[in-house]
Design brief:
- The chain is α+β, with helices and mostly antiparallel strands.
- The protein folds into two domains: 112 residues, Ferric Hydroxamate Uptake Protein, Chain A, domain 1, CATH 2.170.130; 100 residues, Immunoglobulin-like (Sandwich), CATH 2.60.40.10.
- Helices cover 20% and strands 38% of the residues.
- A five-stranded mixed sheet has the order 2-1-8-6-7, covered by helices on one side.
Length: 284
């Protein structure tokens, strides 16, 4: 009997081994793929120049400070008393060798564009702990601390410009006016420039401030006669240039009017000459 029981146990054990020998255990690999996002990073130097790094690819959730260091030379001071992820106490002091200037109250801040409100907003989170998400637009802005309530202009902003001559002054005055669209909702610094070499180089006229609705105007006493090109620059967004001019020695006399007068005089001269030739032909 004992032999029979032992034999049965062996048969059961063999059956179990046979039933499990064809079963293979597969361990699923653990995915370690890192998700990336695309962001737009702008560096606004506050003097009419904005350097854009659009389509910058960074790991999802990367902090803005690290992302900025991918596209620019950044210096910052860390305040270890702050707690949180990343470097929450990091305060950016320089970007591409443009550094804060406490005596002039100039500092770097960053603004995040909100598509819902179509406005830039300043966050309450430091760059060292602000995590980026997909398709965000962030603009660093070098500005006076007293104007931190004046955000950068939103994307797709345009600046229009007009100019007319007032010949009642000597030398004549150009009345320059323009507008920023969409309306910025607050005053914006606008730099007016002029060129006397058809746009090859520009010189400053004045730096003025727009109204909250985006309109601005300025009267400029011309430095002399000739042709001028004028343009406006609002936070790096430039208007199309506007051309006007005066004749070289006649103050207040538009150059276009002078050309029209010359053309009219030539036309009248040609007509008179034709009439004289026609009258001579009839006499013969």
């Amino acid at each position: 009997m004992k032999h029979i029981i032992a034999t049965l146990c062996l048969l059961v054990l063999a059956a179990l081994v046979a039933s499990t020998s064809n079963v293979s255990v597969v361990h699923a690999p653990i995915a370690q793929q890192e998700t990336t996002v695309t962001v737009n990073i702008g560096i606004n130097y506050g003097q009419g120049t904005i350097e854009w790094h659009n389509g910058t690819v960074v790991p999802s959730g990367e902090f803005l400070l690290n992302a900025t260091m991918r596209v620019a030379a950044v210096e910052f001071t860390n305040f270890p008393g702050f707690v949180g992820p990343g470097l929450p106490g990091a305060f950016v002091t320089c970007i591409n060798d443009v550094c804060q200037n406490p005596s002039a109250n100039m500092y770097w801040t960053f603004w995040v564009y909100e598509p819902q409100s179509q406005q830039y907003v300043m966050t309450q989170i430091g760059a060292g702990s602000y995590a980026l998400t997909f398709d965000q637009t962030v603009q660093w802005y070098y500005q006076n601390a007293g104007s931190w309530t004046n955000p950068p202009l939103q994307p797709y902003t345009t600046v229009s410009l007009n100019a007319r001559l007032d010949p009642s002054t000597d030398p004549p005055t150009a009345v320059i006016s323009g507008s920023i669209y969409p309306p910025p909702g607050g005053p914006v610094n606008v730099t007016l420039e002029y060129s006397v070499d058809q746009g090859a180089s520009y010189q400053g006229i004045a730096r003025i401030t727009s109204a909250a609705g985006g309109t601005f105007t300025y009267s400029w006493r011309l430095p002399g006669g000739g042709m001028f090109m004028v343009r406006a620059d609002a936070q790096g967004i430039k208007s199309s240039p506007v051309s006007f001019g005066t004749s070289g020695g006649v103050p207040g006399f538009p150059f276009e009017s002078l050309l029209a007068g010359i053309a009219l005089g030539l036309s009248i001269g040609i007509l008179r000459r034709k009439r004289k030739l026609g009258s001579r032909h009839n006499l013969h």
